[in-house]
Amino acid sequence: MIFSINEARDILRIDGTDNDLIIVALIGAIPPYLTQTTGYKATAGVYSPVALTAARFILQQWYYGENADTDKLQRVIDCLLKALSAEREIL
User: Could you tell me which of 2, 91, 1 has the C-alpha nearest to residue 54?
Assistant: First the structure.
């Protein structure tokens, strides 16, 4: 997993375990999403700083959905995904 459940709760600023099933599902969906959108794959389970940052924003957008400032988050995510694509091409 790209994040532990505790790290994800910290990213989302959530206390408690009520939504852990949802959060775990979202965490599990992020690596394949990064691969599908950019071709990026972690090396030996280690993610680059750009991938981790993109994953944090993606988690926030997916979890909070309509309650998030979707346009701003999407612009940041798009820029990070472009950077991740470029990083993959360099490697």
Answer: 2
Across-strand partners of 46? 43
Q: What's the pTM? A: 0.90
Closest CA to 4 of 35, 36, 28, 29: 28
- Which of 45, 40, 44, 43 has the alpha carbon at shortest distance from 81? 40
Which residues 6+ apart lie within 8 Å of 72 measured at CB?
A: none
3-state secondary structure of 59: helix
Q: What is the pLDDT along the chain (91 residues), one digit of tens a residue?
A: 899 999 999 999 999 999 999 999 999 999 999 999 999 999 888 999 999 999 999 999 999 987 767 888 889 999 999 999 988 766 5
